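Much of our argument rests on the idea that a fold can be written as discrete symbols. In the encoding step, the backbone of a single protein was reduced to a row of integers, each denoting a local shape. We regard such an encoding as a compact summary of how the chain folds. The record that follows shows the chain in one-letter code together with its fold in token form:
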Amino acid sequence: MGDLFSDAARERIDDLAPLALRLRPATLDDFVGQNHMLGDRSALRLAIAQDRVTSSIFHGPPGSGKTTLARIVAGTTGAAFEELSAVSASVADVRAVLARAKDRLGGNGRRTILFLDEIHRFNKAQQDALLPAVEEGLITLIGSTTENPFFEVNAALLSRCQVYQLEELQDDELTVIVRRGADALEARVGDDLIGLIARRAGGDARNALNILELAWQTAQAEEEPLDEGHVEDAARKPPLRYDRAGDAHYDFASAFIKSMRGSDPDASVYYLAAMLEAGEDPRFVARRMIILASEDIGNADPRALLVAVAAAQAVEHVGLPEARLNLAQAAIYLARAPKSNAVIGALGEATRDVRERGNLRPPKMLRSTGHGLAARRLGHGAGYVYPHDDPRGFELDFLPDELQGRRYYHPSGQGEEEDGEREGAG
């Protein structure tokens, strides 16, 4: 009876399963996207086709095809295929898989492939339990993760695996998937709605099919043709790709900074909005702008630092959501300001001399004369010219004797940072 009920349950699950699961590709020919790693004659494609996949980590955002690729490997390999989810599997589960793998290898020479979903959820002890088996070749490990494996997977285990980076799907790739879904549902979906679903999916194939399925079901329930309202109603979740503790945090922050540095106010505001909409800490954003004001603008526009600091103060005093305006104003100002890296350049060169030669003592003319007669007997202050009384004081070299003639600050000539002698001379 148990087998009968199990068979019936499997048949019903196939009927009730989400569209995304029902349409999961079973071959590489049906797989959409990731051409950078699965193109014709690519190493991974040939390895899958020839059943010689080595231990690998598939890293990428949700809906990019990590689990699908693993199942395609399962369908093409002659090895036994075991699957665990790191969310629920224990060390005992891992050891049971390894024991079965050892029995197979010793009994009939059959290999074992272990697919471990969300491998980043395994702690160090659990990952360490896999290491000897991977190193000895007892199992071929295929792990999938949405997190950066270089941060989340043990270095020893990672060094024994190939890492494949999957990218979020492009709109044209998602349209292919949505059309397949529409055919499977026997749904009438116009090209404009297919494009809208692709855009609202946020690069996620699973999300695209979920939107399509829900929108079509809603339209059928209302006995109306599928329209934009059905799609928008089904796509209530914003297609945001952001994790404040993961790669997206650093990628968007980097794009934001480089857009301001490159004087692109539109891109600067876009990345600012993307970070804030995803829940980024506005104080982090403000701190980055303060740093950029000195690092990339400096004295080409000294007001840039004042603007950035004012935005940071506004975040503290006003808070979100209103402080978004202050941050946007500052980002646009910094993007449009003239650029110079002369400040960081000067500091870098000076620091290099200090580290290489030590903190050389100032020339005697600059040393303190606070000790009166004793200081004067040592020559302290001799030769110093007070610039406000004598313009020659602006022409003196104030560096230590060993560094006389060195220049650290090289004005860029941009904005207010004129290319010339020290300001104040003359």
